[in-house]
């Protein structure tokens, strides 16, 4: 499988077209050029028989080197039998739960799923 097919200049020079299109960098890493001029890094992979796409960032904020490193990390996770999309979703859920817990603590309520929260909910239902 060919990797690192292009130099940064190719991605920098990419122009918009009538439709969204991809520029392949090899190994499942692509730069998607949208009709509005936005350029997005995507890593396309197959996990458990399903084809999935993982967003890696906006070009040029996410450089070619960073996108390649992120795609390599995702490939390593896939080789270990881990779905990188699920890992990202779980991290997002943990961050949301933490934010909700901080808001609850400021309001004087117990953290979600804590012993105090469970018992408080039990007594409120009665």
UniProtKB/TrEMBL annotation:
Q: What is the lineage of its organism?
A: Bacteria, Pseudomonadati, Pseudomonadota, Gammaproteobacteria, Methylococcales
For this protein, what is any one GO molecular function term?
Answer: DNA binding
Q: Which residues form the Integrase DNA-binding domain?
A: 7-90
Q: What is this protein called?
A: Arm DNA-binding domain-containing protein
Query: Matching PANTHER family, A to Z?
Result: PROPHAGE INTEGRASE, PROPHAGE INTEGRASE INTS-RELATED
Q: Which residues form the signal peptide?
A: none
Organism from which the protein derives: Methylomonas rivi
Question: Which UniProt keywords are listed?
Answer: DNA integration, DNA-binding
Top-level taxonomic group? Bacteria
Family, similarity comment: Belongs to the 'phage' integrase family.
